[in-house]
Amino acid sequence: MTKRIPIIGGNWKMNTNLESGMLLAGAIADQADTCECCEVVVYPPFLYIQAVDSVIDQTSLHLGAQNIWHEPSGAFTGEVSGAMLREVGATSVIIGHSERRHILGESAELISQKMEYSIKDGFQTVLCVGETLEEREAGKTVEVVLGQVKSGLQHVHASKMEMVVIAYEPVWAIGTGKTASPDDAQNVHKEIRECVRGLYDETIANTLRIQYGGSVKPDNAAELFACPDIDGALVGGASLSADSFNAIVTAACES
Ligand code: 13P
Prior knowledge:
The chain has a single domain (7-254), classed as TIM Barrel (Alpha-Beta Barrel). The model has no long low-confidence stretch (mean pLDDT 95). The two termini are 15 Å apart. Helix 1 packs parallel to helix 11 (242-254), helix 7 (141-152) crosses helix 8 and helix 10 (218-225) runs parallel beside helix 11. An 8-stranded parallel barrel has the order 1-2-3-4-5-6-7-8, surrounded by 6 helices. 43% of the residues lie in helices and 15% in strands. The chain is built from 11 helices and 8 strands. It is of the alpha/beta class. 1,3-dihydroxyacetonephosphate is lined by residues 11, 97, 169, 174-175, 213-216, 234-238.
């Protein structure tokens, strides 16, 4: 079986301030430096990326952005390009987060354009997918999630798939304290991997990392990471405390 290095992301969303973000990053970097068995990435708000980079520059903690725009420059008020992100130290980008799909109204078409651009621009690119409660209750989880996977990857060539991570984040589990059961999450992750096998090939499917996201906490992380197709987590609320985030990293190392 292919050994995949777990990836634990801390999506800070619109939280922290300059000082607390730098302190948080420093405490996470201290732990990341002691752990070689998983990849750890933090995604601060755009404005703090440069300051966080100054704290973690010489450490093994990776740095990312919560969004990107799919043009290199121009009249796009309020947007941020790949070149700008790279200049301040980001190497990873989250695309298609449910808050951007559902609160900011990002379309599947826009998300696939951003995927193409982010990868061309050299970023590790995390494609977020996930069903709403309504879709889940209508029995459409797999249909919705695989539709988002296919659409998000439509412009991604096989040779670039090593830059892609998929995050399965059921919308009803985000910030609610409700987590998908390990069996339910494993089932969706397996479907995603099978879908990628069909879109690309066996090797790409076996090496692709699929994170779970949605109320991951120190006390539920280990049982999620024990599932064969769950390769880490994208963590929201619990990534805002170094103690809880570091405990999740430890659980991934021990899985
Ligand atoms: P919570 O961990 O707060 O549920 O957020 C998950 C998430 O949206 C990570 O991107």
